[in-house]
Amino acid sequence: MDFKVNKEGFYGEFGGAFIPELLYPNVKELEDNYMEIINSGDFQKEYKQLLKDYVGRPTPLYFAKRLSEKYGTNIFLKREDLNHTGAHKVNNTVGQIILAKKLGKKRIIAETGAGQHGVATATVCALMDMQCVVYMGEVDIKRQAPNVARMKMLGAEVRPAKSGSKTLKDATNEAIRDWINNPEDTYYLIGSVVGPHPYPDLVARLQAIISEEMKWQLKEKTGSEIPDKIIACVGGGSNAAGAFYHFLDNEKVELIAVEAAGKGVDSGQTAATTTIGSPGIIHGSRTLLMQDEYGQITEPYSISAGLDYPGIGPLHAHLFKTHRGTFLSATDKEALDAAKELTELEGIIPALESAHALAALPKIKVKPDNVIVVNLSGRGDKDLDTYMKVFGY
Amino acid sequence: MNKLKRLFKEKKNNILSIYFTAGYPVLDSALKILPALEKAGVDFVEAGMPFSDPMADGPVIQQSSEKALKNGMNLDIYFSQLEYLKDKINIPVVAMGYVNQMMRYGEERFLQRCKDAGISALILPDLPLKIYLNDYKILFEKYGLTNIFLITPQTSEERIREIDNASDTFIYMVSSSSTTGTKEKISAEQKSYFERIKNLNLRNPTVIGFGISNHETFSNACNYAAGAIIGSAFVKTVSEDSSEESIINFVRKIKEGE
Ligand SMILES: Cc1ncc(COP(=O)(O)O)c(C=O)c1O
């Protein structure tokens, strides 16, 4: 089984570039150049240097002793929450901004849900002195106010997406429309392993640093670079793609993807795409998505803005379809409980998105000698408002 | 022969096409809008199948699509409205929408219903040329349908030639790098793009769309192409007044000026 993208931009039956002709030259330019650029010595040197000195990598692989005792196994946390800007998103933006510069682009656009990708984009734009416009759903602007302020302070213009569900999917539509209107000087810095080929592959490669580090860190700490299970949450799927990347071909490693069930997979208020979705096209990619019988994309729901997306990246659709990945879901309530548990046992306040990955721990079978890595994709600062409301602090 | 092909065989210039969103402003608006457009002397129409995520469309068509979906429009109703009109009108109809609508409905079922509804061609902007040629062309032909492709100011000559080869009715020439919407004037830059395409002497006629909104932009476009398509400006008009009189008046002003 092959889990890498093929020449046509597909993972099995998923992927491709279903884009209007208006975007064809933009996407083609990227497709023709991305591999050569990101594999060049020049790019790698700058990317690795920035990840080290600016982002603060490698991120620790932390043995969570009390959490491990609680679940009767060995749990390691990959601390993406300790990255500059507070999540894994910056691994991708650092890489893509260098790529954009090498392509001679002057203006950066991005979509954001939780605001983490928006902040990570605004950050690298400040660093590289590039103009930055971030599209964000009106609903998300309200629930992620601290991140909106951060983006503004970083010099980005935050434009509200007012159509549809006014969340991540609509922000993505607006970013795509902006790109159609500005085909020459603008680079679309997409935030997850979604969108038309080559974005899913590009973003997966830039997030692959997560599993690259995991391998040598596991070797140091456990004597083997191979864990039994890796757990990650899936919105679009970029932190999961990065955490799985170097283990995709090793079937001994169980890859566990956790989606947001919202108020329950059957509640009508959910973002659990693999449970209630079907194949179709969203944002230029053939993948699994939530839609009605007429192909209208339905509005997802999750307490976590970063998981509130009605699709998943085509790589994940392929992992699901081929059973290479185990797909679970966690409700709002389960995620909140998991966030509280981690905070109390380990003194780490996770992002609500990452709390969904933690919420898988009580749902899986473990043995005492198992090695389990949970990808802690981000920190909870941005979610304090929600935590305060729910827990009454 | 398919009605739309016949139109382009018989008429070589000043072809006027109007886009409207089915289900807007009210669910059965198409039943009045289509006959009114025919009466007004429009040459062919594009009947928009409203979609939740119309990524190539600007605010006016987005909002009309959202409203149409709220009104309860769906593909079954869309096709039955056109089936009902089929024997009552003569004007060629092009269905415009997004590829996910066709895929989800089931390709053959979708194409069969297009055929039964008398639709001549499809515009699915996010159906890539290569996938059309590999996976869909034979199927479309089986149902007597043809796909209309777009070109833009950024499309390379090589690709325009490929699109010309894959087309058999007309090529939809997007007037500038933008989503759908209205513009008051055609710029010098646009004119040189229109000129460049005209000089390619393509096999297929071209029709200019996106940004055509009034008599001036329409007649200007007709200097360079077989005709032009008006969308957002018409959708705006029917949002204010969708009576037959208003529609006939709109079309007259496009053709003759104020
Ligand atoms: C902390 C965190 N984790 C996860 C996600 C979900 O994105 P992805 O599935 O691409 O990793 C987000 C998105 O905003 C996020 O902020």
Molecular structure report:
The complex is a heterodimer of chains A (about 400) and B (about 260). Chain A folds into two domains: about 20-50 and about 90-205, Rossmann fold; about 55-85 and about 210-390, Rossmann fold (3-Layer(aba) Sandwich). Chain A is about 40% helix and about 20% strand. Chain A has helices at about 25-40, 40-55, 65-70, 90-100, 115-130, 140-145, 145-155, 170-180, 200-205, 210-220, 240-245, 275, 315-320, 330-345, 350-360, 385-390, and strands at about 10, 15, 60-65, 75-80, 105-110, 130-135, 155-160, 185-190, 230-235, 255-260, 280, 285-290, 325-330, 370-375. In chain A, β9, α11 and β10 (about 255-260) form a beta-alpha-beta unit. The termini of chain A are far apart. Chain B is an alpha/beta fold and about 260 residues long. Chain B has one domain (about 15-255): Aldolase class I (TIM Barrel, Alpha-Beta Barrel). Chain B is built from twelve helices and nine strands. In chain B, strands 5-4-3-2-1-9-8-7-6 form a nine-stranded parallel β-sheet. The mean pLDDT of chain B is about 95. The interface of A and B includes residues 25, 293 and 297 of A. Pyridoxal-5'-phosphate binds next to α5, α11 and α15 of chain A.
SSE blueprint:
The complex is a heterodimer of chains A (393) and B (258).
Chain A: E1 10-11, E2 14-15, H1 24-38, H2 41-55, E3 61-63, H3 65-71, E4 74-79, H4 89-102, E5 107-112, H5 116-128, E6 131-137, H6 138-143, H7 145-153, E7 157-161, H8 168-181, E8 186-188, H9 199-207, H10 209-222, E9 229-233, H11 238-244, E10 254-262, H12 273-276, E11 278-282, E12 285-289, H13 314-321, E13 325-331, H14 332-346, H15 352-358, E14 371-376, H16 384-391
Parallel strand pairs in A: 4-14, 5-6, 5-8, 6-7, 9-10, 9-14, 10-13
Antiparallel strand pairs in A: 1-2, 3-4, 11-12
Chain B: H1 3-10, E1 15-21, H2 30-39, E2 44-48, H3 59-70, H4 75-85, E3 93-96, H5 99-105, H6 107-116, E4 121-123, H7 129-142, E5 146-147, E6 150-151, H8 157-166, E7 171-174, H9 188-198, E8 206-209, H10 215-222, E9 227-230, H11 232-240, H12 244-256
Helix pairs in contact in B: 2-4, 2-12, 5-6, 10-12
The structure holds pyridoxal-5'-phosphate.
